[in-house]
TrEMBL record:
Name of this chain's protein: 3-phosphoshikimate 1-carboxyvinyltransferase
Localization: Cytoplasm
UniProt EC number: 2.5.1.19
PANTHER family, per the entry: AROM/DEHYDROQUINATE SYNTHASE, PENTAFUNCTIONAL AROM POLYPEPTIDE
Ranges of residues in domain Enolpyruvate transferase: 15-435
Enzyme class: transferase
This protein's record includes keyword ATP-binding: no
Entry keywords, A to Z: Amino-acid biosynthesis, Aromatic amino acid biosynthesis, Cytoplasm, Transferase
Binding site for phosphoenolpyruvate: K27, G104, R132, Q179, R357, R402
Ligand binding (3-phosphoshikimate): K27, S28, R32, S177, Q179, D326, K353
Pathway: Metabolic intermediate biosynthesis; chorismate biosynthesis; chorismate from D-erythrose 4-phosphate and phosphoenolpyruvate: step 6/7
Length: 442
């Protein structure tokens, strides 16, 4: 790779991807481990925590709120160590606003963390985060008794005005969002009675699985999760498995690059997260999954993938989108190489991610010469077996980490170099992405 101004030139991999790799810790589980440990009484021991900008936003935030964090860099690049929480004393009133950077998970979960305490905390973030919708979180928390200032404002910066007398609620979420579910459940831990969150389709369930490790009972079924308060978190040990959303990039690369065959080890195999393996299977990709263990209640194992020349289009139904919500961009690039049309149903949530990923996918595929379109809230990709990357193809990551890796992948697995504007944004979730993929292709 080489850099020109803000553009990174990504060259085709010189060889097939071969051998084993492991990916850094899961971002969703890392955020929760840090935040829940900060809420708990005592010192939790965390290992395998992802060291990326987003998780650093959570670490900085809980530090400002009074948790003692001593996580240190390990030889494998992860963070491990202790976090001593504020427990029954509650978070301390920070002197300055909390800047959550690019991290939607940090800011949305923090709203639920802070709502049950008598604090006033201003939350803000970078330009992207300041454009993202927050009403989906503030609406249920206001029903519970928290306030947000300025009143009626739907985007950051916002000040959370917590209250120690929160009411338990039953809330029907308008969209499947684990961030929304988690914020409500975390506030519910301190509210008197049972707080229940119903969702239109199942979103990732890391919160429901991890809270019991911290001594808080949760009940969870297909589209509903509850917690009964008031309860209290106590310190525990959390081991974070590898991030399936990062593994998806290596797996998709292996499926697209001729003669490849790889295994990605220690990947979270939580069924709410590995929808991408099912989508690839439906496209006819040669991949398999093997369980090898569990970290707490989170299963992990090995995902194996081989080059597959005869991919075909498939349909992903609306109720499965939450299980691939962060993988749609890279799966769209795989779909671009498949015979026939691939349909991703009801993907409107992609419009409100770090950037409008739906528009960005269509724009990027157009750069590749691939026909893709949006009809209502459905995304269609007309695949082209034997797709060639146009010479001089240039993509804009729009400062979105998953788009940066998606368009880089088109170049890495293709026949010609591509340029990716602001590739640097990979530091949000997978800083060593290029090194890892280039190491597999030596
Ligand atoms: C996340 C949930 C998803 C996902 C995000 C992380 C989480 O967002 O896109 O990257 O850790 O809970 P939504 O809950 O808004 O769908």
């Amino acid at each position: 790779m080489s850099h020109e101004a803000n553009a990174t030139v990504v060259n085709p991999l010189p060889a097939p991807l071969r051998g084993s790799a492991s990916v850094p810790g899961d971002k969703s589980i890392s955020h929760r481990a840090v935040l829940f440990a900060a809420m708990a009484e005592g010192t939790s021991r965390l290992s395998g925590v992802l060291d990326s900008e987003d998780v650093r936003s959570s670490i900085r935030a809980v530090g400002q709120l009074g948790a003692q964090v001593s996580l240190e860099k390990q030889p494998d690049g992860s963070l491990a160590g202790g976090v001593t929480g504020w427990g029954a004393a509650g978070p301390s009133q920070p002197e300055a606003p909390i800047d959550c950077g690019n991290s939607g998970t940090t800011v949305r979960l923090l709203m639920g963390v802070l709502a049950p305490w008598n604090v006033r905390v201003e939350l803000t973030g970078d330009d992207s985060l300041q454009r993202r919708p927050m009403r989906r979180i503030t609406a249920p928390l206001m029903k519970m008794g928290a306030r947000f200032e300025p009143e009626g404002r739907e985007t950051l910066p916002l000040t959370v005005c917590g209250s120690e007398g929160l009411r338990a609620i039953t809330y029907d979420a308008p969209m499947a969002s684990a961030q929304l579910k988690t914020a409500v459940l975390l506030a519910g831990v301190y509210a008197r009675g049972t707080t229940t969150l119903n969702e239109p389709s199942p979103s990732r369930n890391h919160t429901e699985l991890m809270l019991p490790e911290f001594g808080v009972t949760t009940t969870a079924a297909d589209r509903t999760a509850s917690v009964t308060g008031p309860a209290a978190l106590r310190a525990c040990e959390v081991q974070v498995p590898g991030d399936p959303s990062s593994a998806a990039f290596l797996v998709c690369a292996a499926v697209l690059k001729p003669d490849s065959s790889i295994q990605v080890e220690n990947v979270s195999l939580n069924t709410a997260r590995i929808g991408f393996t099912r989508t690839l299977e439906r496209m006819g990709a040669d991949i398999s999954v093997r369980h090898t263990g569990a970290a707490g209640k989170e299963p992990y194992g090995i995902v194996s993938a081989c080059y597959t020349p005869n991919l075909h289009g498939c349909e992903v139904p609306a109720d499965k989108i939450a299980t691939i919500v962060d993988e749609v961009p890279v799966l769209a690039v795989v779909a671009a190489h498949a015979r026939g049309v691939t349909v991703f149903r009801e993907v409107s949530e992609l419009r409100v991610k770090e950037t409008d990923r739906l528009a960005a996918i269509v724009e990027g595929l157009e750069t590749l010469g691939v026909d893709a379109w949006i009809d209502g809230n459905d995304l269609f990709v007309e695949g082209q077996p034997g797709l060639q990357v146009p010479v001089g193809a240039a993509f804009d990551s729009k400062n979105d980490h998953r788009l940066a890796m998606t368009w880089a992948l088109a170049g890495l697995c293709g026949n010609a170099p591509v340029e990716v504007e602001n590739f640097d944004s990979v530091k949000i979730s997978y800083p060593q992405f290029l090194t890892d993929i280039e190491r597999l292709a030596r």
